[in-house]
Design a protein that fits this description.
It is a single chain. Helices cover 63% and strands 0% of the residues. It is mainly alpha-helical. It has a single domain, classed as Urease accessory protein UreF (Orthogonal Bundle). It is globular. The relative contact order is 0.22. The N terminus is likely disordered.
Amino acid sequence: MLLADPPPGREARSLSPLAHLRLLQLASPALPVGAYTYSQGLEWAAEQGWVGDEAGAGRWIGALLRHPLALFEAPMLAGMQEAFRCGDVSRWQALNQWYRASRECREMAAESQQMGYSLLQLACSLGEEPLLVAEEEVSFLLIWAWLSERWQIDPLSAVSGYLWSWLENQVLAAVKLVPLGQTAGQRVLWRLAAEIPLLAEQALSLPEEEWNGLAPGWMIAGSGHETQYSRLFRS
């Protein structure tokens, strides 16, 4: 199967002009969900000296993009979206429980729930019918997948947009924390964004038994941030 082909059972859908704009809105840093307040452990990594310059920021962010994001969150997003498209409630609930269990430190778990709840409230304010999910079980990935299907964003575009949004937020955090100059941040963003198209295509064809979000260093950084004395970010 070519990477450009849709996985079995998932039809290809072109992105309409309106759906394209909806995706831009969903991936925008202006989305009022508080993403800019989280560094996902990057702040602790910078304090420890793991990330101290442009090259280090590129290595740290790139490793996370290629592994827990591309090999776990991206295919799970596509799986959730497919479940919403098919009306398979038990499937998206099970995937959401799996995703929530993967947030191995307190701050990252709280981040996903807070951003997910904020995105759900925003969707309702835009006229969407509320998704029937308990507040304590909401996750950002779940609501992103739900809105992607509601707004007729095809899975490849949804996954690409999600990876881009995460990448942009991490680079913005690195600009403040390392610190990096704005131009250096744009170089990191330019280089890593070039990998997203292939990573997104691979995520759509990755068998579920190969989904893998293992990233011990990431979770160590997230846990370390919980007791960091001086900090700018919430995770």
